[in-house]
Design a protein that fits this description.
By secondary structure, the protein is an alpha+beta fold. It has one domain (about 5-110). The chain has 3 helices and 3 strands. A 3-stranded antiparallel β-sheet has the order 1-3-2, with helices on one face. α2 (about 55-65) packs across α3. This is Monovalent cation/H+ antiporter subunit E. It is found in: Cell membrane. Belongs to the CPA3 antiporters (TC 2.A.63) subunit E family. InterPro entries: Cation_antiport_E (IPR002758). GO terms for molecular function: monoatomic cation transmembrane transporter activity.
Length: about 110
């Protein structure tokens, strides 16, 4: 993979992150200002397909920097990321979102 391709894919990840940052910020603001009794916090296990420590670290940072989610732990074998989510009425959808937004882009950068 050329450096130009890697830079382009990194820029795509950055744009995806900014989009998620804005979307999540709005969602968290609504949750905080609204009826918080309806929140369904959860700790989720996100299975990982990444191949490198750098990739897993990047994913964990993207998750932690996104409002409403915090990375808690990565399994020793790097196969699972544990994430706390402020509101997860559909846990599978949250896991799918993390995998389809951030992990997919990071895997492309890993090449």
């Amino acid at each position: 993979m050329t450096i130009v391709t890697r830079i382009g894919r990194s820029m795509t990840l950055g744009l995806v992150f900014i989009g998620e940052l804005v979307r999540s910020s709005i969602a968290v603001a609504r949750q905080v200002l609204g009826d918080s009794s309806q929140l369904k916090p959860a700790i989720l296990a996100v299975p990982l397909d990444l191949r490198s420590r750098a990739g897993v670290t990047t994913l964990a940072n993207c998750v932690s920097l996104t409002p409403g989610t915090t990375s808690l732990h990565v399994s020793e074998d790097l196969s699972t990321l544990y994430v706390h989510v402020l509101d997860a009425p559909q846990p599978e959808a949250v896991v799918d979102s993390i995998k389809n937004t951030f992990e997919t882009r990071i895997k492309e950068i890993e090449g």
